[in-house]
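G., the chain you wanted modeled:
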Amino acid sequence: MESRGPTRAGGEVVEADACDDGMPSFFDPKTVAALFDGNPAAVAVLDHDLRYTYVNPALERLNGLPAASHLGRTFFEVLPELDGRPTTMRDVLADGKPREETISGRTWAADGPDQQLWRAAYHRLDADGEGCGLMAIVIEITDTVRQREELEQARGRVALLSTAAVRIGTTLDMDTTCRELADFMVPDFADVAAVDVFPAEVGHSVRRPARGVVRLRRAALRGDGGLDELMQQFGHPGEYVDFAPDSAVARCLAENEPVIDDWEDDTRDRSDSTSQRITASRALGLRQALVVPLTARTRPLGVLSLVRAEGSPSFDEQDVAVARELAIRAGVDLDHARRYDHEHSIARELQRSLLSEPWGPRPHVEVATRYRPADRGVLVGGDWFDVVPLRDGRHLKAMGDVMGHGVEAAVAMSQYRSLLRLLAQEDLPPHQILEQLDGMVERSGLDRAATCLLAVVDRFGGVCEVASAGHLPPVFIDPGAAARIERVPVGPPLGTGFGGYRTASVPCGPGTVLFMYTDGLVERRGEDIDVSVGRLASLTLPSGGHLEDLLDQVLDRFGDDAEDDIAVLASRIREGPPAVRPAPAE
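Predicted structure as tokens:
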């Protein structure tokens, strides 16, 4: 008989049929053997043709045949006396509904009675929503209460592993995945569950712990019933928790193996911090902990800590196997979330550094800026702004938007900003700066186009020179008057190499506010952009009003339903005595 795929049975690895698409990952040979080799209930795994691919020692004893006599053979080939019984199994394979039945007959067991009675439960094993095989759990109908408990425990473990895939890892957010893991374990598997992870590599630095101490960030904590609130004394989610070298957590990470820590009648020497933690736990009625490592690609991510209270059964080897398998599955989800968060954090930190306070001293101009990402789940974008001081007390204001999101967009944004600062020192009109910037970007091979709006306010002449590369128009707010939207000539976005930019002169006296923004502020799905921009004409700012108040007003009115990142900049010439242009140097 042709056989495919290694399957463990009774302590040996053999070849057996497998589903064309492969058995589910949580029913791999090692996991199945770890879960059921020592189970007092008889357990078998059969493929879609009802051939045995695994039997545990209890089933070998029940049928009176070694594992090798089962594997690769069908149910009725092994037990001809029971020919016809696979009908119920095929029903389970067909519709996926678990079933139970009572079976009577004879097996090959020499010490068995002529007629035996068993109770069997069948569960379908799925791969990509299709029946890949079957798990059968069989007990003799003797000592009914004890064996029913064993049957329920075995079925519960199978159900726990089967439903984990749809309950854990539903998003790419690491903390959400940790909460899903903790919620999944309580109360069916433990009375308390905590997930602690190593701090992120990017972002705010974390103070170093003492030598030998493991510092983890508590990502999730869940207790059953009243324990949920009582457990907060051990560290709220988001806080950092220190674990001494002799703690179960530190030992688990050091050995990369599950650790069971019994707290009842414990006479072992413990460090003060570990003793205090155990004493506080016992005061809440907790008696035993199981700590399992969370790893991915051999890299430690943190630990899953499971605690049982008085009255709950102690953790056994099968509990350890189940917890470890769930931790392996969760580790893969956490690794995906961590890598996503790592890239997101790099882009966010890069963008934050580039959107810091605009460059250089500004004795004659007031500036206020804001940046607001669309939401936490969206990668940062390429929005940017800058204020570059020029000669004669003038300033070049820039507002730009690089296409796309993520690290690549943020890096492209930094290149645009650096090139612009370099060109600004040549003191060219805005349209010539855009012309040169467009050419430099095209020659550099930068494949990210960008829109850009440049403005230079001449505080002596009372005008603002504006040039646009595909950007939305600026808004001018005169003191005590309604805003005016200036429809300046618009050239193509930067990076296209087409050029053709023009500079427009717009009246802008002392006290007039120049307001610049990216499209995230106004662009709305299904709405004409002219209508969206037109709403900005309602902006006002009283004479002497604060620019920060203006930005608060703008974001409150237009930012809440934004679908993209928002960058805004407001500036104005400081009011004072009439400015006189300095005489040229002789």
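Confidence is low (pLDDT under 50) at residues 1-18.

Shout if anything looks off.
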